[in-house]
Design a protein that fits this description.
Elements lengths: L1 H18 L5 H33 L7 H28 L3 H21 L3 H10 L3 H13 L6
Helix pairs in contact: 1-2, 2-3, 3-4, 4-5, 5-6
Length: about 150
């Protein structure tokens, strides 16, 4: 029960940060569960992509898991946000929340391509756009330690 409560608090904080609105608990929980699913799927996509790169190159000198994972996570999170915006549109009609879902989803999806092409500007824009201090910290540390992987 404590996990569900903390999960709902996380999703409520996520919504407050992104949209400045408070949604129903069911919708918050649905988005939080889909976000975690996207996080896990992105990890497996990133590992698969790195395996292909290592096999193609014949070495693992350029294997930066966090970089690839963050890019796929941003892409999937953007799709989840767009899905939730569409769901909200068809269930409740048009509102400012639906527009904000669409904007956030499109921005996250677009920034994922910049991250996966190893763009320094795309990396920092995506990091800031997550509105997540944990990503801000880890992505900054990652940049400092792995500057050679950025263009």
């Amino acid at each position: 029960m404590a996990f569900v409560t903390s999960f709902q608090n996380y999703s409520q904080a996520l919504f407050a940060c992104y949209f400045g609105v408070k949604l129903q608990k069911e919708k918050q929980t649905m988005l939080a569960i889909l976000s975690v699913a996207a996080l896990m799927y992105a990890y497996f996509q990133a590992c698969n992509e790195l395996d292909k790169t290592e096999e193609r190159d014949g070495h693992n000198k350029n294997s930066f898991l966090w970089f690839t994972w963050f890019g796929f996570f941003m892409r999937l999170q953007g799709l989840v946000t767009l899905f939730c915006g569409g769901y909200e549109y068809f269930s409740a009609g048009y509102s400012i929340e639906v527009l904000s879902y669409a904007i956030v989803g499109v921005m996250m999806f677009a920034l994922s391509f910049a991250v996966l092409t190893k763009s320094k500007v795309g990396w920092f824009a995506a990091t800031v756009f997550t509105c997540n201090p944990i990503f801000w910290f880890f992505n900054t540390v990652y940049y400092v330690k792995n500057k050679e992987c950025f263009k």
